[in-house]
Amino acid sequence: MPEHGVRRKWFVPLACWLAVFHCLGVLSAFAALPNIVVFISDDHTQRDSSVYGSKDIVTPHVDKLAAAGLTFDRAFAPSPSCAPSRGAMLTGLMPARNGAEPNHSEPRADIKKLPAYLQELGYEVVAFGKVGHYNQTAHFGFDHFEHIGYHEDIAILAALEWLRNRTSTKPLALFIGSNWPHVPWPITAEGHDPGALTIPENHVDTPATRQFRGKYYAAIGRMDADLGAVWQLAQEKFGTNLFFQYFSDQGAQWPFGKWCLYEDGIRTPMITVWPGHIVPGTRTSAMVSLVDVLPTLVEVAGGQAPEGLDGRSFKKVLLGETDRFRDLIFSTHSGDGNMNVYPSRCVRDDRWKYILNLHPEFKFTSHVTEVAGEDGNYWKSWVQKAKADPDAATKVHRYQERPREELYDLQNDSFEERNLAEDPANAPVLKKMRAALEDWMKQQGDQSRTYGNPTMLSAPAAREKDAKAAE
Asked: How far apart are CA 48 and CA 50, in angstroms?
């Protein structure tokens, strides 16, 4: 008995030491994991930042971020509307596979989401603002989330306060979504002179366009300030043990932007900072998609990129090991309620963009054309000008009436104004791109569904509405 008692006496301290060693090991592992901060802007076309060449707006905090990290010149949204794009980012699956195809829909509940992957690696995963899509954020499994409603701009201040007061030693993955520059834009241009602005060549230049362009730039300025505040605090809180990434969900609410598969709809700014891993002030031409964010963050967090996803990790691009990633970028659009019913698909390579409009008999409508009083009522001025101006008429027509197939040479036509699908000289390219998209749609199990009630080009009501808008 005494001998047995001695054994028990030594056994208890040994168990305690093992527990201590285990805790120390966990703490050491935690210390090695970078804290992750992801900042998402809302409806921001890539070219509308000074770091991407805009002469009309200065985005100083975006510029500072670019000076500290890697700027992606060719990052793309899986869809040009909020919910499908964010759903793909948070699942690593494209809309047809995760179930979130039209706007305001959500991925299936049975699909594993990004927070769960990071939580398994020891992270506390938190969201402030529009990270998922409004009330859907609860379904993504964040440990904590606040202010996820429409334009709850207090979300940024709340996130800063929460982070400033956080005392946990667990590695953190913090996602912050700004609602800027999503409409409604500020009521004034806030220092941007409408008369001095350069109107994009695919837009119609009217006084109303200039007025709202200034408001849009003011909204971008607010986003830039939000980004700067988050970036500053993240550095103060985590020092160099920080992985910081910024991108937008898709392009801005302008014609040929949001809800469209043109570059202004799907091309997004993206900048990543990772001290000690990413060379500051560098750029990459590697083509990546927001669907690649999930596996990339999992690898950055020390895990293995999950198999069976559409997304792939671009960690090697971040580390400067390669400047090539995807050969093809795919994006899909289904619609936004009855406001926008226009299912379309696209594929893009280094030079060419092919768009398949599944129902060219539908009229392309959107909040821009349908909602009076929202930041888009400049549209009436476009329609009015189109009555006497052939160039304006061409642009209005192109926005609302589209052929089944579109093919653009992005190298020589960055605004996608010259559809080459009917040009016999480009028949081999058209055939190749068409086949690539068809094969991908089959692999996705894409059912080419139509969501909502479309407006038909042939409908008398649609023609009457056009006539009224032109009055």
From this structure: 7
pLDDT digits (tens, 9 = 90+) for 170-223: 999 999 999 999 999 999 999 999 999 999 999 999 999 999 999 999 999 999
- 389 shares a domain with 246: no
Residue 418 CB neighbours (<10 A): 11
* Cα(22)–Cα(26) distance, integer angstroms: 6
pTM: 0.91
Structural domain of 420: 331-469
79-93, 415-429, 457-471: segment of lowest average pLDDT: 457-471
Q: Which residues pair with 242 in a beta bridge?
A: 35
- Residue 335 inside a domain? The answer is yes
Domain count, the chain: 2
266 and 119 within one domain: yes
DSSP single-letter state for residue 169: -
Mind listing the pLDDT tens digit for each residue in 344-401? 999 999 999 999 999 999 999 999 999 877 667 899 999 999 999 999 999 999 999 9
Helices marked H in 166-253: 207-238
Distance, in Å, from the CA atom of 405 to the CA atom of 422, rounded to the nearest integer, reads 9
Angle (deg, nearest 10), helices 60-68 and 207-238 = 40
Q: What is the edge-to-edge ordering of all strands in the sheet holding 242-248?
A: 144-146, 124-129, 172-177, 35-41, 242-248, 267-273, 70-76, 282-289
Residues 6+ apart with CB under 8 A from 249: 40, 41, 42, 43, 77, 82, 85, 86, 89, 268, 290
Based on the domain organization, do 371 and 283 belong to the same domain? no
Q: Which helix (H) or strand (E) element contains residue 368?
A: helix 367-370
* E strands, 231-306, in order: 242-248, 267-273, 282-289
103 close to 335: Cβ distance less than 8 angstroms: yes
Distance between CA atoms of 132 and 148, rounded to whole angstroms?
8
Residue 6 within a domain: no
- Three-class SS of residue 287? strand
Q: Distance (Å, rounded) from C-alpha 332 to C-alpha 407?
A: 16
Do 81 and 218 have their domain in common? yes
Please list the alpha-helical segments (H only) found in 137-206.
Answer: 154-165
